[in-house]
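Chapter review: from sequence to fold.
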Amino acid sequence: MKISPILLGLSLAAAGSLFAVAQDAVTPPKVIQLQREFIKPGKAGAVHDKSEANFVAAMNHGKLQGHYVALNSMSGKSRAIFIVGYPSFAAWEADNKIVDKSPSLTAELDHALLTDGELLESYDSAVATYDEELSYHPHGDIGHARYFEISLFHVKPGHRHDWNELTKMVKDANEKAGTSAHWATYEVAYGAADGTYLILSGDKSLADIDQGYAESKKFAEAMGGPEGMEKLDKLYGETVDHSESQLFSINPKQSYASDAWIQDDPEFWKPKATAPAAKPAAAAKPAAQ
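The token string follows.
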């Protein structure tokens, strides 16, 4: 949804979580890599699904631990974002070493990159680290998620303390109001300007976004009414110089799903192949006269 100072709390109030592997409260991955592909016109959909299936096959062959969820844009320019989760930078390095030591896996990935590159206008990536203090009730439900919201905030230099205070105000108001809000906050470590934060949340359905909008009134009341929202607005303007929010759908065909996600909803993550329709029986030839 569109970010504005007044809707800051609402923008963070999307139901969902990030990458945890069970319904219990589980800490999101400490490190994520975001790979963003801008797709050429007419090259999305089934064409891109087929290309990305090469990467998924290679990841399975290598038994790499960096499982990822593929997101296809529902707003903004046509693109796909692949979010790979790791418990540490060392775990990411371990996957890289597996690839380096396997010529066949390297060749398989190189072929996939070559094929996929023909579909892309451009590509970029970033690496971000989890910030527990700036997150709010993250819990595991990626297996049942269908959509993702990604909100980006750039904090002005020298205003990190204000950003922390701003987030605390939003968290406290959501707690007081008893909203459905929960999110995971990541600070970009590489690939973007210093002071860039990503807030990620997954939705089981688009109705979750309706619920977030419906809860905006009680959030404002918990914030202290018009005066409290004005204070939030002022601090936001002093702290943040850029923000945006985008909506994505999860594409299971392009995702390297973990066993836990598949177990949660096998029909979504690993649907059974549809059997081809039976050919109609040929009409019997008339008997010779």
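Two observations follow directly from the output. Residues 160-177 form the longest helix (18 residues). The domain at 8-259 is CATH 3.30.70.100 (Alpha-Beta Plaits).
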